Amino acid sequence: MFTGIIEEKGRVLAFTQGEKSWRLKLAATTALQNIAHGDSIAVNGCCLTVTDFTAPTAATPGIVEFDVLEETRRLTSISVLQSGSAVNLERSLRFDGKMGGHFVTGHIDGLGRIEILEKRGNDYYMLVRAPQGSARHLIHKGSIAIDGISLTVAETEGDTLAVWLIPTTMDITNLSEKRPGDPVNLEFDLLGKYVEKLIALRA
């Protein structure tokens, strides 16, 4: 479980296909504090399991590696990662800490596509087209995770949604390197999905 509050912008060192799975290697610092083998880290909102790591030092960032399922690579924006790509990182939620954002599972519901990303005044406006049929999950003023970032939906029209971004969000996440046409991972609000399921069962 995650909150959608990004801890760090990491960098891809390599993303290669091995004999048993795809292997993702990242450089990071904050997100590698106090981690252990088997821990979960959200990478662009996708929950991945730590398979190997080297702890950071005062002089150098750490290195963390993940095995990536073929299905995960195929269905998420992880498929476009390459050496040098920026990724949003968040360690799994600890219940002895602060709870910001909203409940995020790290299980991606679909791949969105950025249609507009531009500065408007002091803030930034982003319009994203979600997969066809997603409109029922897009709630005005509701929560959504985009590449793992907890954001509030400002506008909806059909399968598109818009969000407003403060400069800090642009500074500390990978959105500063995104452009119109780029894919982003979408996770719809968990509570909304449960409500939908319960209503469907009662119908």
Describe this structure in words.
The protein folds into two domains: 84 residues, Elongation Factor Tu (Ef-tu), domain 3, CATH 2.40.30; 81 residues, Elongation Factor Tu (Ef-tu), domain 3 (Beta Barrel), CATH 2.40.30.20. The protein contains three helices and 13 strands; from the N terminus they run βββββαβββββββαβα. A seven-stranded antiparallel sheet has the order 10-9-13-7-8-12-11. A hairpin with a 2-residue loop joins strand 3 and strand 4. The protein is globular, with a radius of gyration of 17 Å.
What's the helix and strand layout?
Blueprint: E1 8-17, E2 22-28, E3 40-43, E4 46-54, E5 62-68, H1 70-75, E6 86-91, E7 110-120, E8 123-129, E9 143-146, E10 149-152, E11 155-157, E12 160-165, H2 167-172, E13 183-188, H3 190-202
Antiparallel strand pairs: 1-2, 1-6, 2-5, 3-4, 3-6, 4-5, 7-8, 7-13, 8-12, 9-10, 9-13, 11-12
Tertiary shape: globular
At the first level of CATH, what is the class of the largest domain? Mainly Beta
Main sheet record: 7 strands, antiparallel
Count of domains: 2
End-to-end Cα distance, whole Å, is 30 Å
| Count of discrete alpha- or pi-helical segments spanning 4 or more residues | 3
CATH architecture of the largest domain: Beta Barrel
CATH topology of the largest domain: Elongation Factor Tu (Ef-tu), domain 3
Biggest sheet strand line-up: 10-9-13-7-8-12-11
Order of helices and strands: EEEEEHEEEEEEEHEH
The value of Rg in angstroms is 17 Å
Strand content: 35-45%
Low-confidence stretches: none
* Count of individual beta strands: 13
Mean pLDDT: 93
Portion of residues in helices? 10-25%
Structural class: mainly beta
